[in-house]
Write a structure and sequence with these properties.
The protein is α/β, with parallel strands linked by helices. It has eleven helices and ten strands. The chain has two domains: 3-106 and 186-266, Rossmann fold; 107-166, no CATH class. The protein is globular. The protein binds adenosine-5'-diphosphate (ADP) and magnesium ion.
Length: 270
């Protein structure tokens, strides 16, 4: 191998290290509707990257494709340099990528602390059932998980809610619990789908502070948010999605004043 080839390899490795998520030429159709249309973008490690776009632009669909909830019709997804295209959500999670949902799940009959323990590393479903059907298996990890849950609730200043029924707290508090719960899995990259939708201004500020704190501690964020002030304040860069494709990407100031973005929003659902 020649010297120049060595250098080339080195460069490739360095740039791969900085990219925690790579979406390449991703495509998804629902019948005749093209929800994701050759979308390509990268998320750099350590950033809070915003993902915006008018209603129906395909933001949530991209999250579902990245996190393994939908299989793409084409293209690829890489997490930490590993191809996870078509992988199951728990496998994507094992590579360090976790997502939250636009609408937090219903957690009837559980306290906030119990809700924290539902499937820390995977998504609702299997582990939740296991909690009741195979208590022994869960038991091994129980005390560590409980201690972790308690520590994270404290870090989020939610410990006063730990023994409250999860259904009794406000929608805004639920969003904070959802973020706290996702952190139990110690993700490298966390995908948040509209974390402040329907959240009051005080809790909105809390959420922004928590996202900033976690980002400073090393978590990378990809953030879908309809609230422009919130996303422009937190995110850099911001990626704009329109009709399933990336319209542009740049620092918040540039994105906000770009005529193409303004036009996309005027022409879109909102
Ligand atoms: P956004 O999150 O940007 O508002 P979505 O990703 O939710 O957009 O939706 C993009 C498009 O795909 C919309 O036209 C929506 O109606 C459609 N869509 C999303 N999910 C499905 C689905 N499971 N089945 C059929 N159509 C869907
Ligand atoms: Mg959406």
């Amino acid at each position: 191998m020649s010297e120049s080839e060595f250098e080339f390899d080195d460069d490739t490795e360095t740039s791969a290290d900085n990219v925690v998520l790579r979406v390449d030429d991703l495509q998804k159709r629902f019948g005749g509707l093209v929800a994701t249309d050759h979308a390509t973008f990268e998320v750099e490690r350590g950033t809070i990257t915003g993902l915006i776009g008018p209603n129906g632009a395909g933001k949530s669909t991209i999250f579902n494709l990245i996190s393994g909830f939908y299989d793409p019709d084409g293209g690829s997804v890489e997490v930490n340099g590993v191809d996870v295209t078509g992988a199951e959500p728990y496998q994507v999670a094992d590579h360090g990528l976790i997502r939250t949902f636009q609408t937090p799940r219903k957690l009837e009959g559980m306290t906030v602390r119990e809700a924290m323990l539902v499937g820390p590393r995977n998504q609702p479903g299997e582990s939740f059932i296991k909690l009741f059907t195979s208590p022994g298996e869960v038991g091994e990890h129980e005390s560590k998980s409980l201690a972790d849950a308690q520590r994270i609730l404290e870090e989020f200043e939610l410990d006063h809610l730990a023994t409250q029924p999860a259904t009794d707290i406000s929608g805004g508090q639920m969003k904070l619990v959802e973020l706290a719960r996702a952190m139990l899995a110690e993700p490298e990259v966390l995908l948040l789908d509209e974390p402040v939708a329907g959240v009051n201004p005080t809790l909105r500020k809390d959420l922004a502070e928590q996202i900033r704190r976690l980002n400073e501690q090393g978590t990378t964020f990809l953030l879908i948010e309809h609230d422009m002030e919130f996303v422009m304040d937190l995110a850099d860069p911001v990626i704009v999605l329109d009709q399933g494709s990336v319209l542009m990407e740049g620092p918040p100031q540039r994105v906000q004043s770009d005529p193409r973005v303004i036009e996309a929003y005027l022409g879109g659902g909102t």
